[in-house]
Design goal:
With about 210 residues, the protein is of the alpha/beta class. It has a single domain (about 5-205), classed as P-loop containing nucleotide triphosphate hydrolases (Rossmann fold), CATH 3.40.50. About 45% of the residues lie in helices and about 15% in strands. It has helices at about 15-30, 45-50, 70-75, 95-100, 115-130, 145-155, 170-175, 180-185, 190-205, and strands spanning about 5, 35-40, 60, 80-85, 105-110, 135, 160. Helix 1 (about 15-30) crosses helix 9 (about 190-205). It is globular and about 45 Å long. The chain binds adenosine-5'-triphosphate (ATP) and magnesium ion. Adenosine-5'-triphosphate (ATP) binds next to helix 1 and helix 7.
Length: about 210
């Protein structure tokens, strides 16, 4: 069965593209699973990233949101096992409707007051689409109390919160510039470990 995982946040720069490209490269590396990354952001960050890579089990495409259902049904016919959708940073109604076609919504959030304040708009999207969702703290500094403070705020939303975090790591920036996921760039690094843990978590969540 094909799974569709949407990476959504109305906040710009939260880490949607970072999480989408890294989960997609990891999924594609697993027993050669056919993976599709769909960039529905007009900024085209994932598409630009994919320009720098050789085609593997992961294909990256873009589509207008009004064709998403057709793209998803042909992906299914092509034997794609997992689809990741990278969203633009705003609550365009067409984009919200697109999120309805997902099995799970992954919401990255930085541990900053402006990101936390902006979560309200993203939560409205999640509530509207009525799909399971996971909040993920992204770009967390190694030291300090920002993470603990952000966790308290996010827990209060009642939405599932991934127990680990994605760190603020140069590997994510370097890998992205090279058209790679951290799994390819630095397979044994801390960033790769975090991406694997997140993938395992969302996999379980979809199955449950
Ligand atoms: N965990 C991380 N560690 C270090 N840098 C990160 C991390 N996550 C994201 N970044 C960097 O932060 C910037 C914004 O991240 P990204 O493009 O993934 O956010 P986005 O939510 O997709 O933004 P937009 O809303 O514009 O689409 C990028 O330069 C990216 O490399
Ligand atoms: Mg993006």
């Amino acid at each position: 069965m094909m799974r569709v995982i949407s990476i959504v946040s109305t906040k710009g720069g939260a880490g949607k593209t970072c999480i989408a490209t890294n989960l997609a490269t990891h999924a594609a590396s697993l027993r050669g699973q056919k993976t599709l990354l769909i960039d529905i952001d007009p900024q085209g960050s994932s598409i630009a990233w994919a320009d720098n890579r050789e085609e593997t089990n992961l294909t990256t495409i873009t589509t207008p949101t009004n064709r998403l259902d057709k793209v998803l049904s042909s992906a299914k016919d092509d034997g794609v096992s997992t689809v990741f959708i990278d969203y633009p940073p705003h609550g365009d109604p067409n984009v919200t409707i697109a999120a309805r076609q997902s099995d799970l919504i992954v919401v990255p959030c930085r541990p900053s007051s402006s990101d936390l304040q902006a979560m309200g708009a993203t939560i409205e999207v999640i509530q509207f689409v009525k799909k399971p969702a996971v909040l993920v703290l992204n770009a967390v500094p190694a030291r300090g109390t920002l993470e603990a403070e952000a966790r308290d705020v996010l827990k209060a939303t009642g939405i599932d919160l991934f127990k680990d975090s994605i760190g603020d790591r140069v590997a994510f920036i370097r890998a992205f510039a090279a058209g790679q996921g951290v799994i390819e760039y630095e397979p044994k690094g801390k960033a790769a470990k975090e991406v694997k843990a997140l993938y395992t978590y969302i996999n379980k969540k979809i199955k449950s």
